[in-house]
Amino acid sequence: MFAQFALHERLLKAVAELKFTEPTPVQLAAIPPALEGRDLRVVAQTGSGKTAAFVLPLLNRLMGPAQPRADIRALILLPTRELAQQTLKEVERFAQFTFIKAALVTGGEDFKVQAAVMRKCPDILIGTPGRLIEHLDAGNLRLGAVEVLVLDEADRMLDMGFAEAMQRLTAECAARQQTLLFSATSGGNAMREVVGQVLRDPLLLQLNRVSELNENVVQQIITADDPAHKERLVHWLLGNESFQKAIIFTNTRVAADRLYGHLVAAGVKAFVLHGDKDQKERKLAIERVKQGGIKVLVATDVAARGLDIEGLDLVINFDMPRSGDEYVHRIGRTGRAGAGGMAVSLICHTDWNLMSSIERYLKQRFERRVIKELKGSYQGPKNVKASGKAAGSKKKKADKKDAKGKPAAKRKSAPRPAGKPALVSDDGLAPLKRRLPAAD
C-alpha cells in the first residue's frame, strides 16, 4: 500500500482517488530513498510505473502553504513532446489536492506564450531540451533556484543528440539538492559519463536486465522478400490477428507516409505520426488512437518513447530498428503494466544482421513464424555465422584467361606518327570518335 511511504496526506488522498493500490517494484525501490533526498540512477522497463516513482517524492518535497514563488523549484527534462505532455498530466493528477503548479515547455507551441508562462514561475517546469535551450538563450529561463532535477528517459535524450543541451541545463541547475535519473536501458558509455557528471553519490537501482524486458510480450519474426511483400504481410496481420490497437514502426518518414497511404486506401482506419507532423496533428493522432476512433498508428521512432496507450497490444516492426535499445522501447509500447502483447518484426535480407545483433543484445531468440498464404522465397541466409549473422561469400579475383586456360595476352596498339593524337579509349581497345572543334 502507498500508505507505507512517508508521503503527505494530500498526496495519499490523490493516490487513493486515482485508485492506485499496490506500488510497482520500481516504486517500492525508488520512492523511499528519493524521499530521503538521495540522488538516484534507476533502470526499469517501460511501463513499470517510473513516472509515479519520481513525481510523488518530488511533490512531497515541494509541499507547503500556497505562496507567491519567485523561482522555478523543479525541472523535469524529457526527450519528446508526447512524453512531456503525459508527464504533465501525471503531475497534475497527483497534485490535484495541493497548491503546486506545473507548466509545460516543448517545441511546436507559441514561444511568447511559453515565455509568459515561465514569468509566472511555476513550481515545476516540464520540458524538452531543445526548446528549453532556446528560452535560456532568449533570457526567459532562470534555473538558479531549482531544488530537484529529474532526467527521464535520459538514454533516449543521448540517442537524439541532446547530450550538450542536457549538460548545459544541468549546469544551470547548479544549486540543486537532488537529481533523479530514470531510463529503460543502461545507455552504455555515454550514459556512464552523464551519470558521473550530474549525480552525486547516487544509489543505483537496476530493476531489470535488458533480457528480462517485456517478458509478457510474444516476440516473432516473419521473413519477407521486399518492401511490397512486407506491406502484404502488414495487411494480413491487421486482418487476421486479434488486437485492440496496433502501432507499426518504420525507420523513415517517407516509408511511414507510404504505408499509411496504402492502409487508408485499403479501408484501414489509421493515422501517421512522425517528425514532419506539427504539434496539432501529433496530438490529434494520439488522442484518436487513445479514444479508439483509430485502431492503427503508423509511426517513426518519435513515438517509441512516451506513448502510453491503453489497449495497445500489437507492435509491428515494418523496418527493424537500428539498435537493441530502440527495439526495447518500440515493443515497450505493448505489454505495459503486466498486460500481454505481441511484437512482430518483418525481416528482409537487409534486416537479418540487425535482427541477429538485437537477439544477441537481448540474449534471446525470437520465434520464427511463417504465414502460409504469403510465404516468400527468402527464408533467411543460407549460411549463418556463430553470431547468427549471414555469412557472406568473398569473391576471389580471377585472372583473365583465354580459352586454353592461359592468361590472355595484352593487345598492343599500333604505333602512330609523332604528334598525332590516339583515337582510342583509356583501355586501349575501343575506338573513339574524333571531336569537332568547339563553336565560338
Automatic annotation (TrEMBL):
CC terms in the record's Gene Ontology section: cytosol
Motif (Q motif): 1-28
Helicase ATP-binding domain mapped to chain residues: 31-204
Positions of the DEAD-box RNA helicase Q domain: 1-28
Gene Ontology MF terms: ATP binding; hydrolase activity; nucleic acid binding; RNA helicase activity
Region (Disordered), start-end ranges: 380-440
Domain Helicase C-terminal positions: 232-377
Superkingdom in the source lineage: Bacteria
Keywords: ATP-binding, Helicase, Hydrolase, Nucleotide-binding
Signal sequence extent: none
Family classification: Belongs to the DEAD box helicase family.
Protein name per its UniProtKB record: Helicase
Biological source species: Pseudomonas fluvialis
